[in-house]
């Protein structure tokens, strides 16, 4: 079920009413309702996916309990590895089986040996990478002694499948989300209104910005041979806004929806395109994944405690694994590698924690230096997005070859005025709200209620009038 | 909770009012000056003329229905030479859901002796939005059309629907800006002169939508219920479907099916307007080929 669909517009109020009016006084029933609703939400794509998530839930629930009862470290390790192997095994099979098989076949045929094995027609379960990482964090945290296992299966099932963030995050930590299922939730007006406001902004980002930019990005990338370097460059910028609007829009809707049910999810995006260097960008982009990798991979690998070589090695590992997490394609690996390369100079110069504050916190506009740094970081990121979006590595290089040719000086043939205008409006609103959790969180709070309502109505009307052709969320495929 | 629900309701009401008033007042400006998702003025199809001509018809032998493949492929002047009185109710991107609406609107009045149902496989895969927009811009508004528009679940259709209301209120007509190389011929045919250079498209995989299959089968039942014989026809285009056998099997099961992609071979450089439409020369060949089939079918059915 897509957030930007009629199905969800019907589903959400039904669950909301049942949750607050029918099961209001019973935490167990509320959790059961969340679990059942989440399974309906997920099964809406394909009911066969449900068996996978249910199996994963049962395994991790049992391993969690077994881990807490076990005192032998070696046996604990075995249990942890069983959980990791099963979860990553599923992920590996569904997501990477064909990739490895095809690459092995290519490698063998390069040396003159042919392997007769056909790729399997595997349907990738929606959001498998997200919930796999979420359940992994549960067993790892129990193993590390940071979390006590739950003995309430319904709560655990609701935690794993919590529908607002099930298919595209934020990837929640059990330490943050699971305890919220034990506490009695009380309806709070301000929290619910805030949730609705964030949903509205998320829908705007997805439907108006991402879906409209997608139309042009797809047109340009899918027919890249027909366009000049300048148009391809515009296409890359459209994709940069598409992926940001799409993914951060989803996160906003997810966080906003959770707030309607009394839950607080972690922040996933913090205005990444206003970053002044690549390190800041990665502190602001897909925060739940970056911090997951930091806590469960980078630090166990030694983090930055070793020498320079270890820091560099670990940084490259993190970025390449992150690229691979996105999909079984060499383009994602190169995207990860490129970001590691970008990161390297700031890491070596120990400038990776320079820009921790919000840009231009005490002023309305950035300084010239800040502006230059923002543009440069955006340009580098967009350059890497070309690999992320391209069909294959050759396609990406062909696009780059054209961008870095004389045809870059030609007037772009695709310049949709209205979409550019809407994107500029979007950037301005994001800039004005950059100090808050999301752009319109407190925007206009100093003005009258009528002005604020007018602004929200304007946003809602834009959603109705400028909805792009409905596209599935990009991150569902990951 | 009460104030939350009350405020939410109030907000929704205000949004809906703003949205309605906004479109009624500036919908046209938004449509012309921006790329807002509001009804566009049709650039092909001549639907309005076609519908007004349909209302004048008194006696009819053959009725053609379907997508643009229908109104661009069968020349009534050639069919007249075979003593067939024909009319083409094909409309741009007409899917089976819209065919259903058109059949319900016109079948009783036209009372044809034979129906040629053009079945371009793509129309089974379409959401029908484009076709609904075409009908909204060219057909009189009635309850069935309003119902069909709402059923699309598409914001563009909703926006256009509201905008159309402003047309009705102010008595404005939709402008139709048709290309100069196209000409409407009485009988519902659109003649295209010349050949356009076009890029070939890749072969496709046929993946029909369930609602289109349902509508198609409902249409056939509707025709059968009136005891009108029909044939299913595919006009030529320049690509193929990877699961062609599946299409053939499905359509052969549903009636007497003629696939003119197989039955005639047309040079892509001479007989096509674009990658999936015939030009007038192509249409002339196809019409000449199909005419004896229609005559024979009419004779067989004792008319």
UniProtKB/TrEMBL annotation, chain A:
<comment type="similarity">
    <text>Belongs to the membrane-bound acyltransferase family.</text>
</comment>
<feature type="transmembrane region" description="Helical">
    <location>
        <begin position="227"/>
        <end position="245"/>
    </location>
</feature>
<keyword id="KW-1133">Transmembrane helix</keyword>
<feature type="transmembrane region" description="Helical">
    <location>
        <begin position="79"/>
        <end position="99"/>
    </location>
</feature>
<feature type="transmembrane region" description="Helical">
    <location>
        <begin position="51"/>
        <end position="67"/>
    </location>
</feature>
<feature type="transmembrane region" description="Helical">
    <location>
        <begin position="450"/>
        <end position="466"/>
    </location>
</feature>
<keyword id="KW-0812">Transmembrane</keyword>
<feature type="transmembrane region" description="Helical">
    <location>
        <begin position="119"/>
        <end position="140"/>
    </location>
</feature>
<dbReference type="Pfam" id="PF03062">
    <property type="entry name" value="MBOAT"/>
</dbReference>
<keyword id="KW-0012">Acyltransferase</keyword>
<keyword id="KW-0472">Membrane</keyword>
<dbReference type="InterPro" id="IPR024194">
    <property type="entry name" value="Ac/AlaTfrase_AlgI/DltB"/>
</dbReference>
<feature type="transmembrane region" description="Helical">
    <location>
        <begin position="408"/>
        <end position="429"/>
    </location>
</feature>
<feature type="transmembrane region" description="Helical">
    <location>
        <begin position="6"/>
        <end position="22"/>
    </location>
</feature>
<keyword id="KW-0808">Transferase</keyword>
<feature type="transmembrane region" description="Helical">
    <location>
        <begin position="370"/>
        <end position="388"/>
    </location>
</feature>
<keyword id="KW-1003">Cell membrane</keyword>
<dbReference type="InterPro" id="IPR051085">
    <property type="entry name" value="MB_O-acyltransferase"/>
</dbReference>
<protein>
    <submittedName>
        <fullName>MBOAT family protein</fullName>
    </submittedName>
</protein>
<dbReference type="InterPro" id="IPR028362">
    <property type="entry name" value="AlgI"/>
</dbReference>
<feature type="transmembrane region" description="Helical">
    <location>
        <begin position="152"/>
        <end position="171"/>
    </location>
</feature>
<dbReference type="InterPro" id="IPR004299">
    <property type="entry name" value="MBOAT_fam"/>
</dbReference>
